[in-house]
Amino acid sequence: MQQPAGFARFRRDLTTLPNLVSLGRIVGIYLAMILYLNDWRLLGLGVGIAAGMSDYVDGILARRLNQVTPLGALLDQLGDILMESSAIFLAVLLGAWHPIFLFLYLFRNFVNISIRMAAALRGQQIPSVFLGKMGANFNFYAIGIVYVALAGILPASVELLLVWISGAALAVGLLWGYLSMGIYLVSYMRTYGEGTAS
After folding, report:
1. Domain ranges in the chain?
2. What is the 3-state secondary structure (H, E, C) of the chain?
3. pTM of the predicted model, to two decimals?
4. Cα 116 from Cα 92, distance rounded (Å)
5. Among residues 24, 90, 118, 154, which is most buried (max CB within 10 A)?
6. With 0-12 CB in 10 A as exposed, 13-18 as middle and 19+ as buried, what is 52?
7. Which string of b and e fits 164-187 if b means at least 16 CB within 10 Å?
8. What is the pLDDT of residues 82-138, one digit of tens each?
């Protein structure tokens, strides 16, 4: 029995180099967490940096190899959310950041996902905005800084300073993220009631 065309395309897209890089990022995120939790922090830092940098690599490869796929967009978004949420969770668990950061991050992402899903049910798409991308960049840098501080390779005073800097960077990222969430919400409300959803 022949497989539906969608399955064949999915399998083909799954094995493209950019998507394999994206899958590697997801694996790397959790490997880095495991290493940190087992006090292999310097190695965990290296794995985490490699996983984070791969976020740029997969997009470049997809465009240069002409392998931009719907699955690639899904994996890229999933990788970003998993990396940020897991890294913030671990930093909270290790005592570097206050739990409110994790709550604020998750709430914002749950709202955004819900808005996009509701819009998609009506056949509409809510495009990303610059503020959201800037917020994600600040989150990324904050995560990098805090894990350097947590790696145990610097004097305690420097580690403390980096924790404070990373917390400030994350706060800015969250602020911009909430501003972008407001824009998405307004965009959703403007067309509320239109489309096919009941």
Report:
1. 1-80, 95-198
2. CCCCHHHHHHHHHHCCHHHHHHHHHHHHHHHHHHHHHCCCHHHHHHHHHHHHHHHHHHHHHHHHCCCCCHHHHHHHHHHHHHHHHHHHHHHHHCCCCCHHHHHHHHHHHHHHHHHHHHHHHCCCCCCCCHHHHHHHHHHHHHHHHHHHHCCCCCCHHHHHHHHHHHHHHHHHHHHHHHHHHHHHHHHHHHCCCCCCCC
3. 0.86
4. 28
5. 90
6. buried
7. eebbebbbbbbebbbebbeebeeb
8. 889 999 999 999 999 999 999 999 999 999 989 888 888 878 887 788 888 889 889
| Tokens coding 107 | 């709430």
